[in-house]
């Protein structure tokens, strides 16, 4: 694995983090969290919602979590959804001399696109119920073993009840509905009621998003309440992230970005352990940089990656906790195609070179996660499935085929194409994608790729059959949603 930081760098950076936490601290608009922090030794000002952390206290905390057995964390996390959810922040504790392991093929758990790119017309539009149903049908046939979750934001329903409406659609159209993404705690009681009606016993059916400061170091009322709920539930690790922008809400330099981002990570983890002393710790760095010429934010360029990779390296060396520098997903490509897939692969494989772990990639996103494309989803999945050919090869007498090598000899009269050994092994040993043309990119092959992907989408949706759901349960669920509208919507 490539390394960025020297021992001398670690000393300077850790002193910087300790100074920020002691002198500046964090803002947290939640009295319960502030109270437990004060009990642990933090300096708390309830009027300004400020908590500051003495250096000795943070040094002790860092030493404590560094000594903890991370295998127990991994066992707990791997019982749940977190290890196969792109944005959970979970990353395995890869050893230095590890072997390549392909990531699992992505599926529609909660990709949550704001826009939908219609593969038939090329129109980009805000996510809505009709397109949500189409994505649900596609996922239902494409990966039935994983089920389908919250694929699109619904612009045609009020945000206060959007997850409830999404839940209703999943229950009607998915054989294995995987639940919805929740940001407002007020929605959870209604979702639990729906889960009881439908006989769903899954603590992650109402899925809580990762927690982040509004950088720098500000935790608002709603997000701190969700953080508290997450920690008390016992179902989640303390999964946090930062999406700060270098040059805007964190320093423009890599060194300054490391210090401020690591301070945010440590402040949230310390708060988490103050509330729940046994909660595992995870995290994800999704920071970007500002293009000073255009004002555009980049999440995948070299200057972005050096910050994210260095933050993760620093945190792991200092605390012993592995966190993710991101996924192979948030690239700026605006159109579906093989180039977009390779853009994501470049991001993922660069991360793998610096971490020893190939991150997940490919849930059909375009425009740094803003838009969801069914065509791109198929291309991403096919490419990711091909990564298994990079795993260590099977070496045994059968795969060596020594008898065949002797039989062909110098290849004067025969070659390997007409041997039983080739016939028996070529399907398992050669990558033969259904959609991609791997003979080389050109505009014609790209057009053919898109055409084949669109045809495959049409075929899969044609294959879809709607599940039979108890109409009485559906009616009860509708009544819950109607009551939520009356109670949650203004006026």
Question: Can you characterise this structure?
Answer:
The protein starts with 6 loop residues before the first helix and ends with a helix. It has helices at residues 7-23, 31-40, 55-67, 70-77, 129-142, 162-173, 188-198, 221-233, 254-275, 302-319, 338-355, 374-386, 397-400, 402-408, 420-429, 443-463, 471-488; strands spanning 26-28, 43-45, 50-52, 115-117, 124-126, 180-182, 206-208, 218-219, 238-242, 245-246, 281-285, 288-290, 297-298, 365-366, 371-372. β2 (43-45) and β3 (50-52) form a beta hairpin. The mean pLDDT is 94. The longest helix is centred in the middle third of the chain and has 22 residues, at 254-275. The chain has 17 helices and 15 strands. α1 (7-23) crosses α9, α6 (162-173) runs antiparallel to α17 and α9 crosses α10 (302-319). It has a four-stranded mixed sheet with strand order 2-3-1-8. It has a four-stranded mixed sheet with strand order 5-4-15-14. The chain has one domain: Trimethylamine methyltransferase-like (TIM Barrel, Alpha-Beta Barrel). The protein is globular, with a radius of gyration of 25 Å. By secondary structure, it is of the alpha/beta class.
List its traits.
17 helices, single chain, four-stranded mixed β-sheet, TIM Barrel, 15 strands, globular, alpha/beta, 491 residues
Write the layout of secondary structure elements.
Blueprint: H1 7-23, E1 26-28, H2 31-40, E2 43-45, E3 50-52, H3 55-67, H4 70-77, E4 115-117, E5 124-126, H5 129-142, H6 162-173, E6 180-182, H7 188-198, E7 206-208, E8 218-219, H8 221-233, E9 238-242, E10 245-246, H9 254-275, E11 281-285, E12 288-290, E13 297-298, H10 302-319, H11 338-355, E14 365-366, E15 371-372, H12 374-386, H13 397-400, H14 402-408, H15 420-429, H16 443-463, H17 471-488
Parallel strand pairs: 1-8, 4-15, 6-7, 9-11, 10-12
Antiparallel strand pairs: 1-3, 2-3, 4-5, 12-13, 14-15
Helix pairs in contact: 1-9, 2-9, 5-6, 5-16, 6-17, 7-17, 9-10, 12-16
């Amino acid at each position: 694995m490539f390394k960025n930081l020297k021992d001398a760098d670690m000393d300077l950076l850790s002193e910087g983090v300790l100074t920020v936490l002691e002198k500046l601290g964090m803002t947290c608009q939640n009295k319960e969290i502030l109270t437990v922090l004060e009990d642990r030794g933090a300096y708390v000002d309830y009027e300004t919602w400020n908590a500051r952390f003495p250096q000795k206290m943070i040094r002790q905390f860092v030493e404590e979590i560094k000594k903890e057995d991370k295998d127990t964390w991994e066992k707990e996390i791997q019982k749940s959804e977190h290890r196969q959810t792109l944005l959970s922040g979970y990353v395995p504790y890869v050893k230095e001399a590890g072997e390549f392991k392909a990531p699992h093929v992505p599926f529609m758990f909660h990709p949550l696109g704001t826009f939908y790119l219609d593969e038939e017309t090329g129109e980009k539009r805000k996510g809505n119920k009709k397109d949500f149903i189409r994505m649900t049908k596609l996922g239902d046939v494409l990966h039935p073993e994983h089920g389908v979750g919250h694929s699109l934001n619904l612009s045609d329903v009020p945000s206060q009840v959007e997850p409830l409406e999404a839940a209703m659609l999943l229950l009607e159209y998915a054989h294995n509905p995987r639940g919805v993404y929740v940001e407002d705690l007020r929605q959870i009681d209604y979702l639990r009621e729906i889960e009881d009606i439908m006989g769903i016993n899954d603590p992650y059916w109402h899925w809580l998003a990762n927690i982040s400061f509004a950088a720098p170091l500000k935790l608002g009322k709603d997000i701190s309440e969700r953080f508290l709920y997450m920690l008390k539930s016992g179902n989640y690790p303390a999964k946090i992230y930062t999406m700060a922008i270098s040059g805007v809400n964190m320093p423009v330099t890599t060194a300054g970005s490391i210090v401020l981002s690591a301070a945010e990570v440590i402040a949230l983890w310390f708060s988490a352990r103050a509330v729940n002393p046994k909660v595992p710790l995870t995290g994800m760095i999704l920071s970007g940089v500002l293009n000073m010429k255009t004002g555009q934010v980049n999440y995948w360029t070299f200057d972005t990656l050096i910050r994210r990779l260095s933050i993760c390296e620093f945190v792991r060396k200092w605390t012993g906790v592995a966190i993710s520098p991101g996924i192979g997903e948030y690239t700026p490509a605006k159109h579906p195609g093989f180039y977009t897939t390779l853009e994501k692969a470049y991001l993922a494989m660069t991360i793998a070179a610096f971490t020893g772990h190939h991150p997940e990639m490919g849930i059909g996103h375009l425009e740094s996660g803003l838009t969801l494309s069914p065509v791109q989803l198929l291309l991403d999945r096919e490419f990711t499935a091909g990564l298994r050919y990079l795993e260590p090869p099977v070496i045994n007498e059968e795969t060596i085929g020594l008898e065949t090598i002797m039989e062909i000899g110098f290849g004067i009269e025969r070659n390997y194409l007409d041997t039983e050994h080739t016939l028996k092994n070529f399907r398992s040993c050669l990558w033969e994608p259904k959609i991609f043309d791997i003979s080389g990119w050109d505009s014609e092959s790209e057009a053919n790729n898109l055409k084949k992907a669109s045809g495959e989408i049409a075929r899969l949706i044609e294959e879809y059959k709607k599940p039979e759901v108890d109409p009485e349960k559906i009616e009860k669920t509708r009544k819950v949603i109607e009551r939520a509208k009356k109670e949650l919507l203004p006026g």
